[in-house]
Amino acid sequence: MNSLSKAVLIIVAVAGTALAADKPDFSGDWKLNAAKSNFGVIPPPATYTRKVIHAEPSITIENTQTGTALGDQHDTRTYTTDGKEVAYEANGASVKAAITWDGDALLINSTASVQGMDMLIKDKVSLGDGGKTMTDAVHIASPQGELDLALVFDKQ
């Protein structure tokens, strides 16, 4: 390998590291701000907290909700931001999901099968207000129709 090729490879490797470093860090303890959120026709939970541990490319999201129509909910999932699919069970549903970057936002594309009914769920998670708020824009498509939600969390 000639020195020019080596230099190009080093520049590409360093550039990739710099790009990863420029991505926002979603880590923190987050609490739902129900007044700023929009649940559409779904009643909001009594409480909803989200703990995020983000060490690029790994991201772990722990959700805890109380007072939902399905009772209290708690789940923890770990993803990588390279689009690798993970599979898990949530509230009796079989789910497959993957996370990728869209600029400074995280896109979570999921498919869920609930009692033989397939649903597509697309989340776009972004930070605002200098990292003090996190918004999760959720689009759900199912045979019964489509639904858009906006969950706004405040950093604790």
Notes on the protein architecture:
It is a single chain. With 156 residues, the chain is mainly beta. It has one domain: Calycin beta-barrel core domain (Lipocalin). Helix content is 12%, strand content 60%. It contains 1 helix and 10 strands; from the N terminus they run αββββββββββ. It has a 10-stranded antiparallel sheet with strand order 4-3-2-1-10-9-8-7-6-5, with no helix packed on it. It is globular, with a radius of gyration of 18 Å. The N and C termini lie far apart (52 Å). The model is unreliable at 2-20 (pLDDT under 50).
Short structural summary:
This protein is mainly β.
Report on the biggest sheet.
10 strands, antiparallel
Helix content: 10-25%
Shape: globular
Overall mean confidence score, pLDDT: 88
Low-confidence stretches: 2-20
- What would you say the CATH architecture is? Beta Barrel
Topology, please?
Elements: H1 3-21, E1 28-32, E2 47-55, E3 58-68, E4 71-80, E5 86-90, E6 93-102, E7 105-114, E8 117-128, E9 133-142, E10 145-155
Antiparallel strand pairs: 1-2, 1-10, 2-3, 3-4, 5-6, 6-7, 7-8, 8-9, 9-10
Structural descriptors:
single chain, 156 residues, mainly beta, 60% strand, globular
